[in-house]
Amino acid sequence: MYKPHIVILGAGYSGLMTATKLQKLLRRNEADITLVNKHDYHYQTTWLHETAVGSLKPERTMIPIRDIINQDKINFVIDEVTMIDEKNKKVKLLNQELSYDILVVGLGFEAEAITNPNLNENIFPIGNLNNARVLREHLEYNFAKYANEEEKNAARINIVIAGGGFTGIEYAGELADRIPELGSEYDVERTQVRIIIVECESTILPGCKQEFVNYAMNSLESRGVEFIMDAKIVESKQDRVVYEKEGKRVEIPAKTIVWTAGVRGNSLLEKSSIPTVNGKVEVKSDLRVPGYDDVYVLGDCALITNPETGRPYPANAETAIASAGIAARNIKAQINKKALLHFRSRKKAIIASLGSSDGVAISLNGRQHFGWRATIMKKLYLNRYLLQLGGIHLLMKKGRFNFFHM
Ligand SMILES: Cc1cc2nc3c(=O)[nH]c(=O)nc-3n(C[C@H](O)[C@H](O)[C@H](O)COP(=O)(O)OP(=O)(O)OC[C@H]3O[C@@H](n4cnc5c(N)ncnc54)[C@H](O)[C@@H]3O)c2cc1C
Q: How far apart are CA 178 and CA 242, in angstroms?
């Protein structure tokens, strides 16, 4: 009997969910499954902005992968993927090479700025747990240095956020709440600290309703966040960031540029011969790569077109989780030579937190929610994910139940 080797790359939202679905769907004699991830833990990217400002301990976002998977069915390899060789159906890792019959790529995203030579000093992406820890340490170090220096260097406590999309807004809200605490810890007056969002569009949260945008801006402005709209960051140097607006170049002294603008798929895909657009693969509606019926690409590495709008589904955790469900069922169908399903994502709620006790949300029925209601919604969504991934045990261990104070 045909017993394929399924290799899943990445244990983020899409990869780990694919693995847990497959362990339920397939019997041991139907397939060999290998899951590869850089670390022995899964982390919840949706909480990273809290880790990056220091309001949430990294351990809270980490879930040991061995606690989630059935190791009788899944061979878990802790290693770094270095190359995808889809022509020879092989994957190179730092320490070994794997052959596959079916490949699932769920390697997540990378910050665009990293590859731009003008934008690689003082740029801090929030792409993974280690990035988030580096940013938190950098912030605290600069507060401490500022408090200690005789000639004050404002660049140490000016924090520029590149991008006013969901991640930038969530980070700004969390940071605005954290600054008073940091200030009292390091003897820095709140009024001296600047948090500046630089956005290239004329609005933050592009695509959202005006009421939603106005609420978010007012909430952040009331806590001292500044907005510079229609401006593009073009350069970052050791002590400053430069943006262009209406044809003029303007400098802000800043040692911290938090990069939340411009995200691309994992660069390993660009290095393969699979065609990519901004590092992402335009997959078919069954989530396979055109021309490679044995390769599924999911989550932030994939561009999945919504047939109703003709535009890609948003790159977020919801899409990543939903794509994992379809990929797992399609892999089973492929093994059993049955028809494959098409990916359709139902309308999802939109939620952005604006700090520990404020937020904006649009629920499935289109109703808008502001303030603590939105923060509760976000926590309920996160808890639902934990329940889906690891059942009640994981929910009780890692769930967020501090609904009224955080
Ligand atoms: C700060 C922040 C807040 C967010 N908030 C929300 C939110 O509220 N709601 C929402 O829906 N979405 C949110 N998102 C977006 C969401 O987190 C992503 O869309 C989602 O994580 C994508 O899932 P994924 O499976 O594609 O990748 P990821 O979850 O990023 O997983 C990728 C995995 O691959 C591993 N990996 C990467 N490279 C290698 C390699 N070379 N070798 C081995 N392993 C590797 C990583 O360690 C990781 O485990 C947020 C993102 C950020 C950054």
A: 26
d(CA 195, CA 354): 14
Q: Answer yes or no: are the C-beta atoms of 61 and 397 closer than 8 Å.
A: no
Q: Give the whole-number percent of the chain exceeding pLDDT 70.
A: 99
Answer yes or no: CATH 3.30.1600.10 is held by domain 5-108+266-348.
Answer: no
Question: Is 390 close to ligand 1, i.e. is its CB under 6 Å away?
Answer: no
Could you tell me which CATH class the domain 114-261 is placed in?
A: alpha beta
**Is the Cβ atom of 168 under 6 angstroms away from ligand 1?**
no
- HEC string of 14-36 equals HHHHHHHHHHHHCCCCCCEEEEE
The answer to whether the beta carbons of residues 195 and 167 sit under 8 Å apart is no
pLDDT in tens, 368-400: 899 999 999 999 999 999 999 999 999 999 999
pLDDT at 114: 63
User: Which whole number is the average pLDDT over 310-318?
Assistant: 90
406 pLDDT higher than 60: no
Which residues are known catalytic residues?
A: 170
The secondary structure of 39-80, three-state, reads CCEEECHHHHHHHHHCCCCHHHHEEEHHHCCCCCCEEEEECC
H or E element in which residue 146 lies: helix 129-148
Asked whether 103 lines ligand 1 (CB < 6 A), one says no
CB of 11 shorter than 6 A to ligand 1: yes
Domain 5-108+266-348 and domain 114-261, same fold? Reply is yes
State which ligand 1 atom lies nearest to the alpha carbon of 352.
Answer: 8
Mean pLDDT for the chain overall: 93
Residue 108 Cα to ligand 1 midpoint, Å, equals 5
Q: How do the domains of the chain map onto residue ranges?
A: 5-108+266-348, 114-261
Task: Look at the block and give the residue holding tokens 């808008």.
Answer: 368
Q: In degrees, to the nearest 5, what angle opens at C-alpha 318 toward C-alphas 322 and 136?
A: 140
**Is it the case that residue 115 has pLDDT exceeding 70?**
no
What pLDDT band is residue 68 in, cutting at 50, 70 and 90?
Answer: very high
Percent of the chain at pLDDT exceeding 90: 83
pLDDT digits (tens, 9 = 90+) for 220-229: 999 999 999 9
